[in-house]
Specification:
Elements: E1 6-7, H1 18-26, H2 38-51, E2 55-59, H3 62-73, E3 78-83, H4 87-90, H5 95-100, E4 103-107, H6 117-123, E5 133-140, H7 150-162, E6 166-171, H8 174-181, H9 185-189, E7 194-198, E8 209-213, H10 215-227, H11 236-248, H12 253-267, E9 273-276, E10 282-287, H13 289-301, E11 304-305, E12 307-309, E13 312-316, H14 323-338
Parallel strand pairs: 1-11, 3-4, 3-5, 5-6, 6-7
Antiparallel strand pairs: 2-8, 7-8, 9-10, 10-13, 12-13
Helix pairs in contact: 1-11, 2-11, 3-10, 12-14
Length: 340
Protein backbone atom coordinates (compact mmCIF):
# COMPACT_ATOMS: atom_id res chain seq x y z
CA UNK A 1 0.00 0.00 0.00
CA UNK A 2 1.12 3.57 -0.68
CA UNK A 3 1.87 5.51 2.49
CA UNK A 4 -0.49 8.44 3.05
CA UNK A 5 1.05 11.88 2.64
CA UNK A 6 -0.15 14.75 4.78
CA UNK A 7 0.86 18.13 3.40
CA UNK A 8 1.33 20.76 6.12
CA UNK A 9 3.36 23.17 3.95
CA UNK A 10 0.56 25.68 3.36
CA UNK A 11 -3.19 26.11 3.18
CA UNK A 12 -2.70 26.80 -0.53
CA UNK A 13 -2.39 23.06 -1.24
CA UNK A 14 -6.09 22.30 -0.68
CA UNK A 15 -8.11 20.71 -3.48
CA UNK A 16 -11.71 21.39 -4.51
CA UNK A 17 -14.19 18.95 -3.01
CA UNK A 18 -17.10 17.43 -4.90
CA UNK A 19 -19.51 20.25 -4.07
CA UNK A 20 -17.06 22.90 -5.24
CA UNK A 21 -16.31 21.02 -8.44
CA UNK A 22 -20.05 20.74 -9.16
CA UNK A 23 -20.49 24.48 -8.65
CA UNK A 24 -17.62 25.14 -11.07
CA UNK A 25 -19.06 22.81 -13.69
CA UNK A 26 -22.49 24.43 -13.53
CA UNK A 27 -21.37 28.09 -13.42
CA UNK A 28 -22.81 30.46 -16.01
CA UNK A 29 -19.94 32.21 -17.76
CA UNK A 30 -19.10 35.03 -20.16
CA UNK A 31 -16.08 37.06 -21.18
CA UNK A 32 -15.03 38.87 -18.03
CA UNK A 33 -12.64 41.24 -19.82
CA UNK A 34 -15.77 42.58 -21.52
CA UNK A 35 -17.50 42.59 -18.12
CA UNK A 36 -19.90 39.85 -19.23
CA UNK A 37 -19.26 37.00 -16.79
CA UNK A 38 -22.21 36.83 -14.38
CA UNK A 39 -20.47 34.53 -11.90
CA UNK A 40 -17.44 36.79 -11.61
CA UNK A 41 -19.77 39.76 -11.12
CA UNK A 42 -21.65 37.91 -8.38
CA UNK A 43 -18.39 37.04 -6.62
CA UNK A 44 -17.15 40.62 -6.76
CA UNK A 45 -20.42 41.89 -5.30
CA UNK A 46 -20.43 39.25 -2.57
CA UNK A 47 -16.89 39.94 -1.37
CA UNK A 48 -17.48 43.69 -1.45
CA UNK A 49 -20.59 43.19 0.70
CA UNK A 50 -18.72 41.00 3.19
CA UNK A 51 -16.00 43.63 3.51
CA UNK A 52 -18.35 46.61 3.59
CA UNK A 53 -16.80 48.19 0.50
CA UNK A 54 -18.34 49.65 -2.63
CA UNK A 55 -17.04 47.27 -5.33
CA UNK A 56 -14.68 44.37 -5.94
CA UNK A 57 -12.28 43.17 -8.61
CA UNK A 58 -11.56 39.48 -9.20
CA UNK A 59 -7.88 38.66 -9.75
CA UNK A 60 -5.87 35.51 -10.40
CA UNK A 61 -3.73 35.76 -7.25
CA UNK A 62 -3.18 37.55 -3.98
CA UNK A 63 0.18 38.75 -5.23
CA UNK A 64 -1.46 40.53 -8.15
CA UNK A 65 -4.20 41.84 -5.90
CA UNK A 66 -1.69 43.44 -3.53
CA UNK A 67 0.35 44.81 -6.44
CA UNK A 68 -2.69 46.40 -8.05
CA UNK A 69 -3.69 47.94 -4.72
CA UNK A 70 -0.22 49.45 -4.31
CA UNK A 71 -0.22 50.75 -7.89
CA UNK A 72 -3.72 52.17 -7.50
CA UNK A 73 -2.74 54.11 -4.39
CA UNK A 74 0.78 55.14 -5.44
CA UNK A 75 2.39 56.72 -8.48
CA UNK A 76 5.94 56.21 -9.73
CA UNK A 77 8.42 57.45 -7.13
CA UNK A 78 5.94 57.20 -4.26
CA UNK A 79 6.48 55.06 -1.18
CA UNK A 80 4.49 52.59 0.90
CA UNK A 81 5.12 51.56 4.51
CA UNK A 82 4.89 47.87 5.37
CA UNK A 83 6.36 45.33 7.77
CA UNK A 84 9.63 43.53 7.18
CA UNK A 85 7.63 40.29 7.25
CA UNK A 86 4.74 41.57 5.14
CA UNK A 87 3.90 39.41 2.16
CA UNK A 88 3.63 42.46 -0.12
CA UNK A 89 7.17 43.46 0.81
CA UNK A 90 9.04 40.18 1.39
CA UNK A 91 7.34 37.47 -0.64
CA UNK A 92 6.10 39.09 -3.85
CA UNK A 93 9.37 39.29 -5.81
CA UNK A 94 9.74 43.04 -5.45
CA UNK A 95 6.79 43.64 -7.76
CA UNK A 96 5.90 47.05 -6.37
CA UNK A 97 9.41 48.33 -7.10
CA UNK A 98 9.92 46.50 -10.40
CA UNK A 99 6.51 47.00 -11.98
CA UNK A 100 5.13 50.02 -10.13
CA UNK A 101 8.34 52.00 -9.47
CA UNK A 102 7.06 52.26 -5.88
CA UNK A 103 9.60 52.40 -3.09
CA UNK A 104 8.94 50.17 -0.07
CA UNK A 105 9.73 51.51 3.40
CA UNK A 106 9.89 48.38 5.55
CA UNK A 107 9.57 48.51 9.34
CA UNK A 108 10.49 45.66 11.66
CA UNK A 109 7.40 43.87 12.91
CA UNK A 110 6.80 43.67 16.65
CA UNK A 111 6.42 40.14 18.09
CA UNK A 112 2.63 40.36 17.74
CA UNK A 113 2.93 41.22 14.04
CA UNK A 114 2.09 44.89 14.42
CA UNK A 115 4.19 47.85 13.33
CA UNK A 116 5.01 50.14 16.27
CA UNK A 117 3.12 53.39 15.89
CA UNK A 118 6.14 55.56 16.67
CA UNK A 119 8.13 53.79 13.96
CA UNK A 120 5.35 54.28 11.43
CA UNK A 121 5.21 57.97 12.21
CA UNK A 122 8.99 58.33 12.07
CA UNK A 123 9.04 56.65 8.63
CA UNK A 124 6.61 59.10 7.04
CA UNK A 125 8.67 61.45 4.91
CA UNK A 126 8.51 65.22 5.01
CA UNK A 127 7.11 67.00 1.95
CA UNK A 128 10.56 67.63 0.51
CA UNK A 129 11.86 67.12 -3.02
CA UNK A 130 14.69 64.97 -1.66
CA UNK A 131 12.32 62.25 -0.46
CA UNK A 132 9.93 59.78 -1.99
CA UNK A 133 6.37 60.76 -1.20
CA UNK A 134 4.90 58.50 1.50
CA UNK A 135 1.43 57.60 0.23
CA UNK A 136 0.28 54.36 1.83
CA UNK A 137 0.31 52.26 4.99
CA UNK A 138 -0.08 48.54 4.24
CA UNK A 139 -0.89 46.09 7.05
CA UNK A 140 -1.53 42.34 6.98
CA UNK A 141 -4.09 40.32 8.96
CA UNK A 142 -3.38 37.61 9.87
CA UNK A 143 0.41 37.89 9.71
CA UNK A 144 2.37 34.76 10.48
CA UNK A 145 -0.91 33.32 11.72
CA UNK A 146 -1.30 36.12 14.29
CA UNK A 147 -4.38 38.30 14.49
CA UNK A 148 -3.67 42.03 14.67
CA UNK A 149 -5.49 43.55 17.66
CA UNK A 150 -8.31 45.67 16.29
CA UNK A 151 -7.59 48.52 18.68
CA UNK A 152 -4.08 48.65 17.23
CA UNK A 153 -5.43 48.58 13.65
CA UNK A 154 -7.72 51.51 14.40
CA UNK A 155 -4.87 53.50 15.95
CA UNK A 156 -2.49 52.76 13.07
CA UNK A 157 -4.99 53.65 10.35
CA UNK A 158 -6.01 56.82 12.19
CA UNK A 159 -2.33 57.80 12.35
CA UNK A 160 -2.08 57.19 8.61
CA UNK A 161 -5.12 59.32 7.86
CA UNK A 162 -3.79 62.09 10.09
CA UNK A 163 -0.74 62.25 7.84
CA UNK A 164 -2.73 62.04 4.60
CA UNK A 165 -1.86 58.40 3.87
CA UNK A 166 -4.17 55.84 2.31
CA UNK A 167 -4.48 52.39 3.91
CA UNK A 168 -4.44 48.88 2.45
CA UNK A 169 -5.01 45.54 4.16
CA UNK A 170 -3.51 42.34 2.87
CA UNK A 171 -6.37 40.19 4.11
CA UNK A 172 -5.15 36.93 2.61
CA UNK A 173 -6.39 35.21 5.78
CA UNK A 174 -8.88 37.82 6.96
CA UNK A 175 -11.53 35.16 7.59
CA UNK A 176 -9.12 33.27 9.86
CA UNK A 177 -8.68 36.53 11.76
CA UNK A 178 -12.44 37.08 11.93
CA UNK A 179 -13.17 33.57 13.20
CA UNK A 180 -10.35 33.65 15.74
CA UNK A 181 -11.35 37.06 17.11
CA UNK A 182 -15.11 36.42 16.95
CA UNK A 183 -15.61 39.54 14.87
CA UNK A 184 -17.03 40.03 11.40
CA UNK A 185 -14.68 40.40 8.46
CA UNK A 186 -16.45 43.68 7.75
CA UNK A 187 -15.39 45.02 11.16
CA UNK A 188 -11.77 44.05 10.47
CA UNK A 189 -11.86 45.63 7.00
CA UNK A 190 -13.64 48.84 8.01
CA UNK A 191 -10.56 51.02 8.75
CA UNK A 192 -8.97 50.37 5.33
CA UNK A 193 -9.40 52.00 1.93
CA UNK A 194 -8.67 48.74 0.10
CA UNK A 195 -8.62 45.10 1.18
CA UNK A 196 -7.25 42.07 -0.66
CA UNK A 197 -9.19 38.89 0.13
CA UNK A 198 -7.68 35.53 -0.83
CA UNK A 199 -9.97 32.64 -1.76
CA UNK A 200 -7.29 29.99 -2.34
CA UNK A 201 -5.89 29.57 1.17
CA UNK A 202 -8.05 28.38 4.06
CA UNK A 203 -11.24 28.82 2.06
CA UNK A 204 -10.08 26.10 -0.31
CA UNK A 205 -10.75 27.58 -3.76
CA UNK A 206 -8.20 26.63 -6.43
CA UNK A 207 -7.51 30.18 -7.59
CA UNK A 208 -8.28 33.81 -7.02
CA UNK A 209 -8.38 36.87 -4.80
CA UNK A 210 -10.75 39.82 -4.75
CA UNK A 211 -9.60 43.39 -4.22
CA UNK A 212 -12.29 45.64 -2.74
CA UNK A 213 -12.49 49.39 -2.26
CA UNK A 214 -14.07 52.54 -3.68
CA UNK A 215 -15.41 52.71 -7.22
CA UNK A 216 -12.61 55.09 -8.23
CA UNK A 217 -9.80 52.89 -6.91
CA UNK A 218 -11.25 49.68 -8.31
CA UNK A 219 -11.81 51.25 -11.72
CA UNK A 220 -8.13 52.19 -11.74
CA UNK A 221 -7.39 48.66 -10.60
CA UNK A 222 -9.35 47.19 -13.50
CA UNK A 223 -7.13 49.04 -15.97
CA UNK A 224 -4.03 47.89 -14.09
CA UNK A 225 -5.31 44.30 -14.14
CA UNK A 226 -5.44 44.43 -17.93
CA UNK A 227 -1.97 45.95 -18.09
CA UNK A 228 -0.53 43.23 -15.85
CA UNK A 229 -2.14 40.39 -17.79
CA UNK A 230 -4.67 39.51 -15.11
CA UNK A 231 -7.77 39.81 -17.24
CA UNK A 232 -9.44 36.41 -17.68
CA UNK A 233 -12.13 35.37 -20.11
CA UNK A 234 -14.70 32.76 -19.00
CA UNK A 235 -13.48 33.12 -15.42
CA UNK A 236 -16.83 32.22 -13.90
CA UNK A 237 -15.67 28.61 -13.80
CA UNK A 238 -13.12 29.48 -11.13
CA UNK A 239 -15.10 32.36 -9.60
CA UNK A 240 -17.82 29.81 -8.80
CA UNK A 241 -15.33 28.02 -6.56
CA UNK A 242 -14.85 31.28 -4.67
CA UNK A 243 -18.59 31.74 -4.19
CA UNK A 244 -18.88 28.16 -2.97
CA UNK A 245 -15.99 28.68 -0.55
CA UNK A 246 -17.59 31.80 0.92
CA UNK A 247 -20.82 29.90 1.46
CA UNK A 248 -19.37 26.70 2.93
CA UNK A 249 -15.83 27.19 4.22
CA UNK A 250 -15.71 30.22 6.52
CA UNK A 251 -17.17 28.87 9.75
CA UNK A 252 -15.22 25.63 9.43
CA UNK A 253 -11.96 27.59 9.78
CA UNK A 254 -12.54 27.17 13.52
CA UNK A 255 -11.82 23.45 12.99
CA UNK A 256 -8.43 24.30 11.48
CA UNK A 257 -7.62 26.50 14.46
CA UNK A 258 -8.63 23.76 16.89
CA UNK A 259 -6.57 21.15 15.03
CA UNK A 260 -3.57 23.48 14.96
CA UNK A 261 -3.79 24.01 18.71
CA UNK A 262 -3.97 20.27 19.37
CA UNK A 263 -1.03 19.66 17.05
CA UNK A 264 1.03 22.41 18.67
CA UNK A 265 0.35 21.10 22.16
CA UNK A 266 1.48 17.63 21.09
CA UNK A 267 4.65 18.98 19.49
CA UNK A 268 5.42 21.07 22.58
CA UNK A 269 5.59 17.93 24.75
CA UNK A 270 9.09 17.39 23.41
CA UNK A 271 11.77 19.48 25.05
CA UNK A 272 13.97 19.67 21.96
CA UNK A 273 11.23 21.50 20.06
CA UNK A 274 10.40 25.13 20.78
CA UNK A 275 6.83 25.64 19.65
CA UNK A 276 4.96 28.91 19.19
CA UNK A 277 1.35 28.33 20.17
CA UNK A 278 -0.93 29.27 17.27
CA UNK A 279 -3.68 31.86 17.29
CA UNK A 280 -5.11 30.50 14.05
CA UNK A 281 -3.95 27.72 11.71
CA UNK A 282 -0.18 28.30 11.51
CA UNK A 283 2.44 26.83 13.84
CA UNK A 284 6.10 27.81 13.96
CA UNK A 285 8.64 25.62 15.71
CA UNK A 286 12.39 25.39 16.08
CA UNK A 287 14.14 22.07 16.53
CA UNK A 288 17.42 22.04 18.41
CA UNK A 289 20.43 22.03 16.12
CA UNK A 290 21.53 18.52 17.13
CA UNK A 291 18.30 16.92 15.90
CA UNK A 292 17.09 19.35 13.23
CA UNK A 293 18.22 17.43 10.16
CA UNK A 294 17.25 14.01 11.45
CA UNK A 295 13.87 15.30 12.61
CA UNK A 296 13.06 16.80 9.21
CA UNK A 297 14.17 13.62 7.44
CA UNK A 298 12.07 11.44 9.73
CA UNK A 299 8.94 13.52 9.11
CA UNK A 300 9.45 13.34 5.35
CA UNK A 301 9.95 9.60 5.54
CA UNK A 302 6.71 9.26 7.47
CA UNK A 303 4.78 11.21 4.85
CA UNK A 304 4.53 14.40 6.92
CA UNK A 305 5.42 17.33 4.63
CA UNK A 306 6.28 20.66 6.24
CA UNK A 307 8.10 23.79 5.10
CA UNK A 308 11.27 25.24 6.54
CA UNK A 309 14.99 24.64 6.89
CA UNK A 310 17.83 24.87 9.39
CA UNK A 311 15.59 23.58 12.15
CA UNK A 312 12.89 26.23 11.65
CA UNK A 313 9.59 24.75 10.54
CA UNK A 314 6.18 26.09 9.61
CA UNK A 315 3.17 23.79 9.88
CA UNK A 316 -0.12 24.99 8.35
CA UNK A 317 -3.40 23.23 9.06
CA UNK A 318 -6.18 23.37 6.47
CA UNK A 319 -9.43 21.76 5.40
CA UNK A 320 -7.76 18.72 3.84
CA UNK A 321 -6.05 17.85 7.13
CA UNK A 322 -8.47 16.45 9.70
CA UNK A 323 -8.17 14.33 12.83
CA UNK A 324 -6.42 11.53 10.93
CA UNK A 325 -3.67 13.86 9.71
CA UNK A 326 -3.11 15.37 13.16
CA UNK A 327 -2.90 11.92 14.71
CA UNK A 328 -0.49 10.72 12.02
CA UNK A 329 1.75 13.76 12.48
CA UNK A 330 1.89 13.39 16.24
CA UNK A 331 2.54 9.65 15.92
CA UNK A 332 5.49 10.34 13.61
CA UNK A 333 6.90 12.86 16.08
CA UNK A 334 6.45 10.45 18.98
CA UNK A 335 8.20 7.73 17.01
CA UNK A 336 11.17 10.01 16.35
CA UNK A 337 11.68 10.95 19.98
CA UNK A 338 11.05 7.45 21.31
CA UNK A 339 14.19 6.21 19.53
CA UNK A 340 16.50 8.90 20.91
Amino acid sequence: MTQPVYDFRSDTVTRPDAGMRAAMAEAPVGDDVYGEDPTVAALEVRVAELMGKAVGLYLPSGTQSNLIALMAHCERGDEFIAGQQAHAYKYEAGGAAVLGSIQPQPIENAPDGSLPLDKIEAAIKLDDIHFARTRLLALENTIGGKVLPQTYVEEATELARRHGLATHLDGARIFNAAVASNRSAQDLAAPFDTVSVCLSKGLGAPIGSVLVGSEQLIEKGRRLRKMLGGGMRQAGIVAAAGLYALEHNIERLADDHSHARRLAEGLARHGQLTVEMPQTNIIFLTAEHEIAGAFADHLAGAGIVVSGRYGQQRWVVHKDLGDEAIAAALAAVEEFFSTR
